[in-house]
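Subject: sequence -> structure tokens, single chain

Hey, anyone have a minute? Need the predicted structure for the following. Not urgent.
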Amino acid sequence: MYNTIEDLLRVQQETGKPLHQIILEEEMALTDCGQQQIYDRLRERYQVMQTSAQRALAQPQQMVLGLISGQSACQQKHAQGESICGGFLNELMAMALSCSEVNASMGRICAAPTAGSCGILPAVLLSVGKKYNASEQQMLDALLVAAGFGAVITRNATVSGAEGGCQAECGAAAAMAAAAAVMLAGGSARMAANACAIALMNVMGLVCDPVAGLVQLPCSFRNASGAVNAVISADLALAGQDPKIPADECIDAMYKVGKKLPMELRETALGGIAVQPAGKAFAEQLQRL
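Reply:
Had a minute. Here:
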């Protein structure tokens, strides 16, 4: 039924169906699953997202080297007091960091679309859903929209850091989350597509350079900034900002840029901050364990 974001928008315009319904029907056709079964699976994943986004807010998670242990609790505490960004964005970042901690500690997360970017969509869904007092059904419908946009990105580009850099992981996650946020806020299908495009524009060329080869630094900070990217992209689209470059073209550009990144900047830990003196020291420490 759809292979591109423009296909989705065309079907929505022709049928008048909401995006989540179009994506649901496509999923039912592809999987031979019924509506209830698909929503049950969505609910299970949403519950995993909820747990991972909350788990480290008060209790630092233990992990190899512990490079990001305690980040979430630190940010959550900051969210309760005076801050530049205010409570909403700081709590958003704290939940994204929580998912990253849970992932690094070998806890259960929902790869959306990858483990390295697992904090972005949960943090955005929970924060925006809370702001608009969304029902569980609305949250699951927004998750369906995120999945539909993610499917297009996966089909036409990549969500692999090893193939396309962090722009393909945290960038795709932010694009998915931005579209979902627009839906939760009552925006149009076109606005969701514009939010997706803006989110990808904002991180075009972002490299993947994990310190010591671990999914800890800078991954956790990029989950936090990716969540912020998603909500500001959603707000830009909701305000009527036109990215001028269609979402499908941004997806194509992201893929082509990713292919041009040198091997050292695609998840190999051979470039970027991973090979700075401090990064090398952590790698040597890991080898001694």
